[in-house]
């Protein structure tokens, strides 16, 4: 009975896991096919090349000509079309520029978010000043304000500054400590014993030195979480670039991919899927290298719910 | 205030100054300005003109507004409970001594990592009525799959399906909470002869109820603001505006029609709806939430 129960659990979990993976495998598989095989019915999972015996030599036939030969004579061999990736990059035209913009934004926003929210979280947790906890409640309350409410005035502000159509609106804001990151770091800062700061203060250590030389080194895992989340957020962000960017040479990968789809969508699925794979891959790789930090970070967000 | 208290206050304020400045520039100012714009006719290029409550009154007679609200509530009503329940089931299953547990966890979490642009593309292709893999799989069971993307009856279910696929984030939060439930509680329940279902209902659910509540509130806020995947997959709102969601329409009003005043008014109504639903959720679950410390 117990054995059957365990078997059932494994079966359910495996089924769910396959469901999670199918879309991703389908993306990669389509990205490696020639266009004819993307639209074959029944679908092909493994890209292949077709060959026939001609004068005793195995000769490749182009996918478009497959119908000209009797099915029995055709030999199929697995052959992923790696060149799709190169062609997709070329078809997107400015892939390199998109990538560069995205990376610039990722680096700037990670620096901005980590430095500013660490400072603010320190002020909200390691120093006792009058009104601190009330102020922190205000900070938390800002998380309730939906982006659409501030969207129009913020757009007008950046327009007034002449920043629309530049990358500035997408990174300057990150230097002003977002409430979520402050919350995350504060949770962590509070777990460090107070005596540590007190001892340093008695030795005449300035508050900034305590922050910089004692607290920050102890909080590396939490800072990593903020950096990782910010990187992910910037890499994936769609609405921000959509609103603030106007010139194609400023587009991020996310916006560039959508732009490519709006021009070539509905036909060149193999290039579209190859490009999607390229956009998703860095995040997947990053996840597998930092899985522990990631899962801990997500768990931290829910703990004080 | 003593000298020392004063010093601490200034040092404290200095540390939080990045947040404080951002709060003034990116929250206080925009919230006030957006409130003001919502009573104005404003197209960005010319100065805002005060029109009183006209924008709010217009909303009542704007059938597209009602449609977008309906679509959003419909989407929320299905994707949120389904996502919460399925994520909980997966988390409970994973919270046992299993082989390959961390691998399973990674696999379930993976979809929520994929950049929304990429996952929107993949689902557009997956749900393709003629060459999509989903309809092909339905054929194994002799079901004729619908035109997910182009039939207005099926566009909302498509997006709901896609949102459930991405519920790994919620699952990981549940899993963390489940791991904090003391083993002793289960053991004493077992001594009392409790079966798996009783243990789940009387131990697990109460113990993780604060986290269920957290996920519920986050889910309400998130799914009422659904935008990117629908915008990417359906552009203007899909066949017969069947997936024109609230924020999509708001975006169109602001940046396609340059009706910044109307868009601001819509944003405030959205804020009120979110606050109202959050309040309802809080009220109706208050008795059910169990905080360990109390």
Question: What can you tell me about this protein's structure?
Answer:
- The complex is a heterodimer of chains A (305) and B (294).
- Chain A has one domain (88-303): MetI-like (MetI-like fold).
- Helices cover 67% and strands 5% of the residues of chain A.
- Chain A has helices spanning 2-31, 35-38, 83-92, 95-125, 132-141, 147-160, 168-171, 179-189, 194-202, 207-218, 220-236, 239-244, 253-264, 269-289, 291-303, and strands at 48-54, 57-61, 75-78.
- Chain A has a three-stranded antiparallel sheet, with no helix packed on it.
- In chain A, helix 3 crosses helix 14.
- Chain B has two domains: 1-32, no CATH class; 61-288, MetI-like (MetI-like fold).
- Helices cover 72% and strands 1% of the residues of chain B.
- Chain B has helices spanning 3-37, 54-61, 63-94, 101-113, 116-126, 133-140, 155-165, 168-179, 183-191, 196-207, 209-224, 228-234, 246-256, 260-285, and strands spanning 40-41, 49-50.
- Chain B has a two-stranded antiparallel ribbon.
- In chain B, strand 1 (40-41) and strand 2 form a beta hairpin.
- Chain B starts with a helix and ends in a 9-residue tail after the last helix.
- The model of chain B has no long low-confidence stretch (mean pLDDT 92).
- Chains A and B meet through helix 1, helix 4, helix 5, helix 6 and helix 11 of A and helix 1, helix 3, helix 4, helix 5 and helix 8 of B.
